[in-house]
Write a structure and sequence with these properties.
single chain; alpha+beta; Immunoglobulin-like; 4 helices; 30% helix; 30% strand; globular
Length: 179
């Protein structure tokens, strides 16, 4: 095969790969989950990220359309890896949960439910989980965790990880309805 033909094939293959990656519009984003106090890695924390886009319809009523929910569990070094979509999808919500820790959300902060500011999704990010403290209400944390659950369409890794929180929240809800 001639050098010119080989070079042309190489360029063609590179172009196709580049276009297919751009068309998919996603790549992997990696991060670490650590203990806020000790800064040691947390193994087997559930990481979930919801990717969405604006739906069609009248302004203010279109809502958000789920594109994908990507999930992972952290490894022994606290590392996770999830797909990241192109910046065209500006709607995302991320949650991290490990039993014994406060559920972390890219949108809200427990226990105040105040809006989280200045969070940027980026490769190499480090999420610090705070250990659950006795002064916190288990019921309030269960409610917070369930509301931060991202995958509303079909349960996944995150929903499996928060099962005890979901059951506690369900028991609270049932008690309130029976009164």
């Amino acid at each position: 095969m001639s050098t010119k033909l080989s070079m042309s094939l190489l360029i063609l293959v590179c172009t196709v790969l580049t276009l297919s990656t751009s068309a998919c519009g996603r790549w992997m984003i990696k991060g670490t989950v650590i203990d806020a106090e000790t800064e040691k890695p947390i193994e087997h924390a559930a990481v979930s990220i919801y990717w969405g886009k604006s739906g069609s319809g009248p302004p203010g009523l279109a809502g958000d359309v789920q594109v994908e929910v990507a999930e992972d569990f952290t490894d022994a070094e606290g590392h996770f890896e999830v797909p990241k979509y192109s910046t065209l999808l500006k709607h995302y919500s991320m949650a991290v949960y490990k039993k014994g820790y406060v559920c972390w959300s890219s949108e809200k902060i427990f226990p105040t439910w105040e809006e989280r500011k200045n969070f940027k999704l980026k490769d190499g990010m480090s999420i610090k989980l705070e250990r659950f403290k006795e002064k916190y209400s288990r019921e309030d944390h269960a409610r917070f965790t369930v509301f931060m659950s991202i995958n509303k369409k079909s349960p996944g890794l995150f929903d499996s990880a928060i099962k005890s929180e979901d059951e506690l929240f369900g028991n609270i809800f049932r008690r309130k309805r029976s009164k």
